[in-house]
TrEMBL record:
It is found in: Cell membrane. The keyword Transport applies. It comes from Caballeronia glathei. This is ABC transmembrane type-1 domain-containing protein. The keyword Amino-acid biosynthesis does not apply.
């Protein structure tokens, strides 16, 4: 029988309970072990390998020549074109994706529209590479379906206007196919976070739709929208399979120059390729870092 002040540990604080908690924690860490293993093998080790190779020459000696070579005109032009393609596709994808998500979430549309749009967005946002390039060539190529129909029924020669599926505008248009659905998937939860009570309070205080969007909705949404745009930029900047399959070497963007340096027979300079890749890692890392910071800020704003 325990008396007052008896400090004998109860059943929930004994050695067995501590052993059980340690065993439970061990099983919990075991569950996330595949994630850490994947991150180490496919993210950390390749990045470290790139960093080491970027500071070496072909004989393995330390050098800064690779970073000096990044200032070549062709390399700077490749980075500039990649920036333009990524920015254009990110801005277009963000604007159109936001409008689509807003119509599905807040528009007075039939109930089946939203699940259908979300399902399509989940599939289309991952449709890239050779299949996507082939689909756009068959659609908007010189003898593509849309090109032929425009010429036959509307007497519009698409390619006489200067458009080409192998150009900057063609690649940007192709990227929009997966950028718009990705924006829909990212921004829909943010639109769901706009509480109906906020709009009702604005109406009760005599505010209009302009006041609601200007002073309530947009201040809450802008971190999510801007963060999603940065994520779209990083997504386009690192895309290589679609651009290579669509344009080959006709459009000088960083992923194609990188591929030529590492795998090419003429421009083969593997260590310069590592420096190019490290530059891409820095650009996409900054974009993703901005997205994470803005997303955390948006979550705090919604709370």
């Amino acid at each position: 029988m325990l008396t007052e002040g008896d400090s004998r540990p109860g059943p929930s604080h004994g050695p067995r309970a501590k052993d059980a908690r340690r065993a439970s924690a061990a099983w919990t860490w075991l569950g996330v072990l595949p994630f850490f293993l994947f991150a180490v093998l496919f993210l950390l080790l390749p990045t470290a390998y790139l960093m080491i190779g970027a500071f070496q020459d072909a004989q393995g000696h330390f050098t800064l020549v690779n970073f000096r070579d990044l200032l070549q005109e062709t390399v700077l032009e490749a980075y500039w074109i990649s920036f333009k393609v990524s920015a254009a596709s990110a801005a277009g994808g963000a604007a159109l994706g936001l409008l689509l998500a807003w119509a599905a979430v807040m528009g007075r549309l039939p109930g089946w529209i939203r699940p259908t749009l979300m399902t399509f967005s989940g599939v289309a946002s991952n449709f890239a590479g050779v299949p996507l390039a082939f689909a756009f060539i068959c659609t908007l190529g010189r003898i593509g379906l849309v090109t032929v129909l425009l010429k036959k029924y509307l007497d519009i020669n698409l390619y006489s206007t200067g458009f080409s599926i192998l150009s900057f505008s063609g690649l940007t248009l192709t990227y929009l196919y997966f950028q718009i659905p990705l924006m829909v998937l990212i921004v829909t939860p943010a639109l769901d976070g706009l509480k109906r009570e906020w709009r009702e309070a604005c109406d009760c205080l005599g505010g209009t739709a302009y006041h609601y969007w200007r002073y309530v909705a947009l201040p809450v949404l802008w971190p999510s929208v801007l963060g999603a745009t940065l994520l779209l930029f990083a997504n386009a900047f690192g895309a290589v399979a679609t651009a290579y399959a669509l344009t080959g070497s006709s459009l000088n963007i960083v992923p194609i120059v990188l591929y030529a340096q590492i795998r090419g027979d003429v421009l083969h300079n593997q260590n310069l390729g590592y420096a190019l890749a490290l530059g891409m890692v820095l650009v996409t890392g900054l974009s993703n870092g901005g997205y994470i910071w803005l997303r955390s800020r948006a979550e705090r704003g919604r709370r």
